């Protein structure tokens, strides 16, 4: 009996192994190209066909609302009525979850942030997008088109959707004078020791690198997402020095809003939506992009390479950045819309000013989230840069 | 059909047991085995795909990086403290429930102990967060966010899991033994030390298995009230959620499994496992 049990366990183990081997395919080792890698050869769609009747959407929460969260917020149903494409929405929580889900091949389109998009391109999960088939693309802000996170070698891999900055935020009653530099969060002698709130993600290392870029020019940091050994160590050390100042790290914006409202934190990194929310609850809060600039996000709608519903996918791309829908999403989520005509469609006309929607100079100050890869993103070929796995390990070490 | 199985008792037993055994084998042990196997692989830095390439690299990182040792010690320390606090708080409560209360009051008290289990974990943790905050109800004595706040919150969250086994153990303890101890001239403290404690010790250990293992694997409470500190669960979560590095997360996840196996082996002799 015992013997038989062991044999069963053995068979179980082997079949598990086989199953695992089958699913993890090998990937092309990419020679360095214009951006450090050459994506797999994929063709963009040439012409639209008949809508296929189905569309599986992978989206950030709030990006593809069908009225189930709030009956007043619904831009999926009108799309279904216009095109006959039945939409299934799957929300995801982090960029990495999106990358993992896209590998299943079950989704047709995805709203990818810059720290996910290049990974989708490199693994062949997303294909180039023929922008000529998306009429509303013509109205997209020019400063969002053909950027390093949504195109490779001049080929567009998606449609810009919206963007925002990770702002320096402070309580106006507790922090005086108004800070003009990130040093209130990084300087070891900051008067706000124990009252600083910082973003809880390995990508926050880029905020430290951005600070060093301005304050320690001898390190030679050109892009906060392309850090060699020396620059990386300097950024890690800066964050270790910051740790005693920090009251907590946030990854849930509601938790941060609460901390700022209660005064457990008086200065920190926040999104515009957090600032609006907290101000709305009566906390005296102000936010700005300080002299060193800021990190931020710029999202792109991408099409899955294996999608069997490409016509519906293109129709969705066009629908989601049409002026009215782009305005609704931006308003609901709290970010700058990509479409220049979206501002006229907003119910709150001040929002485009709040989010600096048409402000190219402001947008240029933002260092958008990008996946750190071994090939340096700033074009250096003589050194190896730290990849995201190493960023993650360092982040664990910083938090201690 | 029935007659067929009736005449073959062994086949009948096998048929009845096959579903639970399949569940145990596939879903439970299978998942654990898959986890352990994954720990020896690694991921491609860029595409995030798991690379099947056997190595001990993950374990090497785990043992050589001082930060993982620190986090392991912190986690075990928190779990041990939570267990001790829960045992100290739970024992008098369970004793009152089992020995002093009337049968009617007993039922009400058991329900009262269970009610917190009906509320969502998150709501309870956030309630503690607001109590411990700068303008919260406990602000005058609040330790602020950090390890102390985590211990307090976890002790609150897991308390019912300690009270119920101790209550069950005390309930089984015959009153006649306590009376006999008194008749023989023992004062209450002596009765507690020589009669009650030795007989209910397995029940306390049974409760400690719950509180200890639940604290060992927790990552939500510490994220909500822990300030900047992190536990083993956070390292696992960050490696899956942020880095998409399932292999290293699996490596870290083996640490609590090994600690729990050691703990269970140590308490096996107390008879606590019969109390679960």
Q: What is the helix/strand order of chain A?
A: HEHEHEHEEEEEHEHHEHEHEEHHEHHEH
Largest sheet of chain A: 8 strands, mixed
Distance between the termini of chain A: 48 Å
Q: What is the C-alpha radius of gyration of chain B, as a whole number of Å?
A: 23 Å
Membrane topology (chain B): Multi-pass membrane protein
Keywords (chain B): Cell membrane, Membrane, Transmembrane, Transmembrane helix, Transport
GO biological process, one term (chain B): transmembrane transport
Pfam family, one (chain B): BPD_transp_1
Question: Which features characterize this protein?
Answer:
heterodimer; A: 400 residues; alpha/beta; D-Maltodextrin-Binding Protein, domain 2; 2 domains; eight-stranded mixed β-sheet; five-stranded mixed β-sheet; globular; disordered N terminus; B: 276 residues; mainly alpha; MetI-like fold; two-stranded antiparallel ribbon; 12 helices; 1% strand
Structure report:
The complex is a heterodimer of chains A (400) and B (276). Chain A has helices at 2-23, 77-83, 95-102, 114-122, 183-186, 205-215, 229-242, 253-262, 272-280, 310-320, 323-333, 351-354, 360-364, 388-399, and strands at 54-59, 86-91, 109-112, 126-127, 151-152, 155-156, 159-165, 167-171, 196-199, 246-250, 267-270, 285-288, 294-304, 336-337, 366-368. Chain A is of the alpha/beta class and 400 residues long. Chain A folds into two domains: 52-162 and 295-360, D-Maltodextrin-Binding Protein, domain 2 (3-Layer(aba) Sandwich), CATH 3.40.190.10; 166-269 and 372-397, Periplasmic binding protein-like II (D-Maltodextrin-Binding Protein, domain 2), CATH 3.40.190.10. In chain A, strands 1, 2, 3, 4, 7, 13, 14 and 15 form an eight-stranded mixed β-sheet that branches. A five-stranded mixed β-sheet of chain A has the order 10-9-11-8-12, covered by helices on one side. In chain A, helix 2 (77-83) links the parallel strand 1 and strand 2 (86-91). The longest helix of chain A has 22 residues, at 2-23. Chain A is globular. In chain A, 52% of the residues are buried. Chain B is mainly alpha-helical and 276 residues long. Chain B folds into two domains: 1-38, no CATH class; 55-268, MetI-like (MetI-like fold). Chain B has twelve helices and two strands; from the N terminus they run ααββαααααααααα. In chain B, strands 1-2 form a two-stranded antiparallel ribbon. In chain B, helix 4 packs parallel to helix 7. Chain B is globular. At the A-B interface, helix 1, helix 3, strand 10, helix 8 and helix 14 of A face helix 2, strand 2, helix 4 and helix 11 of B. Chain B: It is a multi-pass membrane protein. Chain B: InterPro entries: MetI-like (IPR000515), MetI-like_sf (IPR035906). Chain B: Belongs to the binding-protein-dependent transport system permease family. CysTW subfamily. Chain B: The chain crosses the membrane at residues 21-41, 71-96, 108-127, 147-170, 191-212, 246-266. Chain B: Residues 72-265 form the ABC transmembrane type-1 domain.
